[in-house]
Amino acid sequence: xxxxxxxxxxxxxxxxxxxxxxxxxxxxxxxxxxxxxxxxxxxxxxxxxxxxxxxxxxxxxxxxxxxxxxxxxxxxxxxxxxxxxxxxxxxxxxxxxxxxxxxxxxxxxxxxxxxxxxxxxxxxxxxxxxxxxxxxxxxxxxxxxxxxxxxxxxxxxxxxxxxxxxxxxxxxxx
Length: 174
Description:
Number of helices: 5
Number of strands: 8
Helix content: 25-40%
Number of domains: 1
CATH topology: Rossmann fold
């Protein structure tokens, strides 16, 4: 089973739409997957209790377990202020270290409403994930001006879909 992390807690995000599309493409290949939407994080997860595991809420422990139980993770990552969202970093910081990500395989997809497609965000996140021991697939599609290339949960740009499908094929054998 593959876990797809929608890398923002922003309501009605394009990120979640891309995560859902990714899940559909995996299903068309007979692959099971689940989406972990960071909107589901408990409101107080980033309080000082983030650094005291004995204070974790049951909701947060449940999300951590979902990460612990898989061997492959896809991160759908929007670009926020020339990096990835702080909520994603806080979530990663709250995972069991070093066991949660070490030795697992990961794929990254970058999104932005600007022209870079999240290039710097993916670079920053790759550094963090490598430190945590996650093996990151080299193929990282980036989708600039994403808001102009999605309609009804689907890409309107054929190249975007092709790049996502190519990444999925690589990731399945990674």
